[in-house]
Amino acid sequence: MKEKIQDGNFRYFFLKIFVDWAVKSSYCKYQVEGLENIPSEGCTIWASNHTNALMDALVLLSSTRKQKVFMARADIFRKKTAANWLTFLKVMPIYRIRDGIEAVKRNDEVIAQATDILMDKVPLVLFPEATHRPKHSLLKLSKGIFHIASSVYEHSGKEEQVNIIPIGVEYGDYFRYRSTVLIRFGKPLDISGYIKDNAGEPWPVQMLKLREMLRERLAGLIAYLPDDEDYDSMWEYVKLKAADRKVFACTLSKVESEAGCKLNGLMRNQAVDQSLIRDVLSMRESNPEASAELFKKTDSLRLWRIQNGISVFSIADEKGWGKILIKFLMALAGLPYYLFSGLVSSLIWIPTVIILGRVQDDAFYNTARFGTRFGLSIISFIVWCLVYFIFLPWKWALVALILSLPSLRYIYAYGSFTRRLLSDLRWKFRKHKAPDYSGVL
What we know:
It contains 18 helices and eight strands. The protein folds into three domains: 10-220, Glycerol-3-phosphate (1)-acyltransferase; 231-305, no CATH class; 321-433, no CATH class. Helix 1 (10-24) crosses helix 2 (54-61), helix 10 packs across helix 11 and helix 16 runs antiparallel to helix 17 (394-404). Helix 3 (80-88) links the parallel strand 3 and strand 4 (91-94). It is of the alpha/beta class. The radius of gyration is 24 Å and the shape is globular.
């Protein structure tokens, strides 16, 4: 019997152990919430927002031990070698209009295969926005996910429970490596129950309503901001407010009081962002003229600080000269190990820099960084083991090897630390040249 894409495979599960480790260690904080919302029975389709290219699929893959199958755009399957690898990795194609009318007709086969996967009780993971975009917003959701859910319901004789689980993936930064990621599983959307309860409505009408319900649930799982002409200004305003420690603490206290519970880790950051977004949207609605003037100032400050390489934290949480001096001394103390780390991880970061120079879509930056690290880390480890134990006494070789293990992480941590230090210094010396930001902070 021909092996199905959802069938278990020892090589795949062995590789997944290494992939899960590599994914989770790619972030300084990796947090999963809401696993209790995944139904223990029935067929489950995972529906996530899509902001960070392949990293979205990888963080979802690593969120649970359970096997799952992914759907991805068909154009990445064009080369036979790529198609074979993607199939091994349990990724199947879905066709879009841009792939051509004839290609789209093959989606009937895709839906049939997806139905078979779900009937085997293997989760199917989709990104209903159909393309990635690094924004705290959502694109229009495609209808394909509901066609698949309906197909499973019909093929089971209208007896199978079919759920779509909304998932919000929130990154601390879309483009910087070793940032943070929060994966939130929301309450399942009972598709089979909805179809039964609304049997009198035409299926196209049901799909439109289900799409809006799914969109609302996805928006509630991220720091959602409408993508309109004020998006950049409003998000900058939210970031500046959240970077202010006093504002953050006050907002968090209010949110936790309303929720009646304490929030942990990255949930605290997201809750503050969501509360500040609600405030800024309310302000825009109640006082559009004042808001327009505020957003204009905010946007001028945003463009100026980006041009000058200044972080929102340097502006909203300005450091005194004493703290800057302490940070400078810490950076100086950490410099020798940084230079050592740069040398021993050069087999990874040099190819990464070369590849990043060829990447045209910024959203693929972390995917490229992950790929080079995943592909070269073992090679780099073996090379340096040979170098150490050939040219050094075994005790010194062992010490050098131990010091080498966190080298790549240290490079990114040290880079982040010194980048913040330089940002603080630039703000100190250039804030008098900043555009008028009265009322912004």
